[in-house]
Amino acid sequence: MKSLLILFLFFSAGISISSQDFVKGVVYNDLNGNQMRDKDEPGIFQVPVSNGADVVLTDENGEYTLPLSQDDIIFVIKPAGYSTPFNEQNLPLFYYIHKPLGSPGLNYRGVDPTGMIPESVDFALYPVPRVNQFDVLLFGDPQPYSKEELEFFDQRIVSELSSATNFSFGISMGDLSGDNPDLFEPYNEIIRNVGIPWYNVIGNHDMNFDVSADSLSDESFERVFGPSSYSFNMGKAHFIILKNILRPDPRNPANKGYWGGFTEKQFTFVENDLKYVPEDHLIVLSFHIPIWEGYVDRDIFRDADRERLFSLLEDYPYTLSISAHSHIQNNKLMNKEHGWTQDKPHHHFNIGTTCGSWYRGELDSLGIPFSVMADGTPQGYALLRIDNNRYNITYKAAGHDMDYQMNIYHPKVMGHAKKSLSNIYVNFFMGNENDEVMFRVDKNEWIPMSYTIEFDPSYLHLLHQWDFTNKVIPGRRPVEARQCSHLWKALLPSDLDIGEHSVEIKVKDMFGNLHYGKSAYRIALP
């Protein structure tokens, strides 16, 4: 009804809502912080502004002009050395939504009618010290299906990060809700407690399902978070956030499923956006669905779109892409086989999730599930450190010390024998096939371990506890195991002296960091 009323008022006044096909405004230095441009507040030169496709730079007065449709979000691309305003939930205020008639009628509320475009759509920025080294929090899939699961997210993840002021900002990599956009606001109220600016990616469980066109699938997301594709700068890093879910699935629109990929408008935006990014900057791409599907047996992403995206990055030697969605963790180094044209591989980090395996697992003393993912990675989050155009990533298992970077699995006791038939396994959570993993027993020589792709036996043991117990375990049984891409194994010696023996693990990861783990086992007479 609101949309019809707005339309009636426009027509009654003799105004055509489609008569204005451009938007103009000013990007300015908000000296008094009131988010309104006052006469003494100067415009800022050469700041990119976009309508989601075109990107223009402000002139010497901070002014810009952009083409305008009846369904656009105009946003400023924050330069390094500046900050945008933030609301009380620490969400960045960098956009203006232009939907004169609002969103169509949907099961979940979209954008209310915005009416005519203002005479000037202005964006406030604030100068801040430019830093080239900074830290970013990365969250994969909170994905709560209820307020109880939001509480799990709060108590297991956010509570240990309260007032994490040593981070410059955070990014949630999609699936902020579990098919319920009404949970966006309570999710924001929890995230605000981290105490830092927060950016959000749209996931497949954040979308409006009752739509017939992909352009309408993010209406509820836009109402709360603004554009689902945008970018910003920090130091020598350029962050590009992209919706990469096509809904309905273009292969079969009738079934209203989804497929990973990008639209023509998004490709236009990325191409135009990169025109103003120096080639020696680090490009960090964030989206929900992995652009590599090697861990599943189905086609989850349109390969041609990955290759086209890679072609836009061919002049940028420093790149990183981050996704979530899979509820396991992967580090994939992509090469020409995947459409990457540079000699140095492209690193695609598929982050583990904050909800683990959908808040399944045994409950702790507070009634919160220990939710281990199907590849044996514990629920948690990642820490991204950027230093100029280089980066380093560390995984943090929730509820554990920072040095807990691996799980070690082997028999606790072995019979004395000349030939061992038992393996020691190391699940190094941030690992990839090129890492160096070694072990030694009783401080003897280091022995290389073999990279393997199989089920993590420690996760299988976890499942067996649920399947073979005679008692009901509080909580929900974890999901079935999936192959682990960061697992190493070796034969564990059994021909040692009777008694206790120490085990040490040493890992050198893709960033050159060293990680250590310890364990022990006992040799006994058969």
Which class best fits the helix and strand makeup?
alpha+beta
CATH architecture of the largest domain: 4-Layer Sandwich
How many β-strand runs? 32
Distance between the termini: 81 Å
Classify the fold: give the CATH topology of the largest domain: Purple Acid Phosphatase, chain A, domain 2
Gyration radius, in Å: 25 Å
Summary tags:
single chain, 526 residues, alpha+beta, Immunoglobulin-like, Purple Acid Phosphatase, chain A, domain 2, 3 domains, five-stranded mixed beta sheet, 7 helices, 30% strand, disordered N terminus
Could you characterize the architecture of this molecule?
The chain has 526 residues and is an alpha+beta fold. The longest helix has 12 residues, at 457-468. The chain has 3 domains: 2-125, Immunoglobulin-like; 134-397, Metallo-dependent phosphatases (Purple Acid Phosphatase, chain A, domain 2, 4-Layer Sandwich); 406-524, Immunoglobulin-like. A hairpin with a 5-residue loop joins strand 31 (499-508) and strand 32 (514-524). The chain contains 7 helices and 32 strands. 13% of the residues lie in helices and 30% in strands. It has helices at residues 2-12, 147-156, 184-191, 219-225, 264-274, 303-312, 457-468; strands spanning 22-29, 48-50, 55-57, 63-67, 72-76, 82-83, 95-98, 123-127, 133-139, 169-172, 198-200, 230-234, 237-241, 245-246, 259-260, 282-286, 319-323, 330-334, 346-350, 361-362, 380-387, 390-397, 406-409, 413-415, 423-428, 436-441, 447-448, 450-454, 475-476, 484-491, 499-508, 514-524. It has a 6-stranded mixed beta sheet with strand order 12-13-16-17-19-18, with no helix packed on it. A 5-stranded mixed beta sheet has the order 11-10-9-21-22, with no helix packed on it. A 5-stranded mixed beta sheet has the order 24-32-31-26-27, with no helix packed on it.
